[in-house]
Amino acid sequence: MANKKSAQQWFDEYAESHQNPTNKLIHWICVPILMLSLLGLVYAIPVQTDLGFVQIRPVHLLLALALVFYFSLSTSIFLGMLVVSLLMYLAVLGLASMDVPLWASSLALFIAAWLGQFYGHRVEGKKPSFLKDLQFLLVGPAWLLHFIYKQLGIAY
User: Fold this and answer.
1) pLDDT digits over 92-109, tens only?
2) Taking the domains of the chain in order of start, what are their residue ranges?
3) Under 8 Å between Cβ of 16 and 126
4) Closest C-alpha among 79, 59, 65, 94 to residue 142
5) Which tens digits make up the pLDDT trace of 35-74?
6) 49-50 and 55-56 as β-strands: parallel, antiparallel, unpaired?
7) Which of 19, 45, 143, 147 falls 20 to 30 Å from 136 in CA-CA distance?
8) Residue 49, SS3 per DSSP
9) Burial level of 17, CB count in 10 A (0-12/13-18/19+)?
């Protein structure tokens, strides 16, 4: 069985390519937008399963899988990312209620945020972490959360 990384090991490795202040600032803006836009794109997939009392959509499965990853890091990271995920989900519902189709607004945000991310990594002079391991796509939002936790004195 592979050696499981701790939350701090993931954050330290992610931080290796996120040292430049401009790149860090871009990540504070673009990572949440990427999360929102990805959830919006997946929510826009017109597939759902009606279980009678609840409708399951692909976005629910995506969130569940992401939360399993966060739980594997720590309970406090899981709880924080659960709150973040719920807020993002509510924002997606808000976007879905607008006149612009959800897929279109989400795609525009997704492209703009990735352009920002790649610009930040160009400034940094290092490749994005997810090119090494796709799990870093999940680490990014938690990495931002860990800074908030540090400010609040919350252990992770």
Assistant:
1) 999 999 999 999 999 999
2) 20-152
3) yes
4) 79
5) 999 999 999 998 888 888 788 999 999 999 999 999 999 9
6) antiparallel
7) 45
8) strand
9) buried
